[in-house]
Amino acid sequence: MSTELQQVQKVWDRTRPNSPIYEFLLNAIEIYEAEKGVVRARIQVTPHHLNSKGSLHGAFSACVTDWAGGMAIASHGLDSTGVSTDIHVNYLSTATDGDWLEIESRANKVGKSLAFTTVTISKKTEEGLTIVAQGSHTKYVRTRSA
User: Is beta strand 83-91 parallel, antiparallel or unpaired with respect to 128-140?
Assistant: First the structure.
């Protein structure tokens, strides 16, 4: 297991029990790869991820964007992943119960006070991966003394 994956898993293990929404929506997520600035995870869609029409709920994608952006920041060796200042999600496709989602998050820049991340949520299909949602997330972080 890489040092970055160990760091990300440590931050997730500490964060998870203190966040009821993460515990509810992301209880079965598997973080399987991390390098500095990039984290990859997967989760299978279950009924509590769905909206009233039976497709992936937008709030789930927004939650994943928030969570995964923080994990990408953690891969830089930070124990605190900051607080959200801005989040955007573009919904490009959908997923339903039983689909497998692949999540890739990137910390594009981690500065002294702000971190900028992007997150791609894709579903596995017979043809490969189909992008379900793409998000961008800015977080206030304190990496060094000002």
Answer: antiparallel
